[in-house]
Amino acid sequence: MGISFIHYHDFKHHFLSGVEWLKNNKGRWNGSIDADIKSFGASQLDYYTGELISQQIKDEIYKILKEQNLLDKNMYKLWLSLNNDYRELQLSDGSVWTLRMIEKEEFIHIHPSRYSPHTMRVKANTLKTVLCTLLLEETSPFTFNTGVINHYRKEYLGLSVLKTDGNHSELENIFQLFRNCSNFIRIFYYTFFFVHF
Fold first, then answer.
1. Per-residue pLDDT tens for 185-195?
2. Are strands 108-112 and 6-7 parallel, antiparallel or unpaired?
3. I need a labelling partner for 50 at 20 to 30 A (CA). Which of 91, 116, 167, 182 fits?
């Protein structure tokens, strides 16, 4: 038994995984990508923006559980049941993670805790909009343009269009998060020059 028993939807909850996803799929759209995006659902979620990569998060949680003899499924279930069927663990960077149980082989389900350090609370449709726009827009992904954004919301995501005079601060904040990431900047410029020159 090992970290393979830890279920973590990192694309949904992890900023660096989102950057890696953009790197691997830039400019593409197919059924698999559509399914990836729609797996976010339509509610709010907690998005980890810290420096730990997914493997480090799973490794740290595994180590804590192993030290407490909680890798046995029945022991883990009992441990959760003593605290309303969930627990929280703090990792090396100060982030806090919620642990639950699901009826799968990967029975240890983890996700960032609400309002944990290094996380932000965001609407799923906001995150889907940003990822779809950055994935497909070649000429101006760094510019907040409601016309461009509405094209992807309507044609690819089946979402309502944004009002030009509305409050889009959450959307702008997520765009800014990606703009500030040097890895994403390299992805965009490599793709742009490879395609256009």
1. 555 554 444 44
2. parallel
3. 167
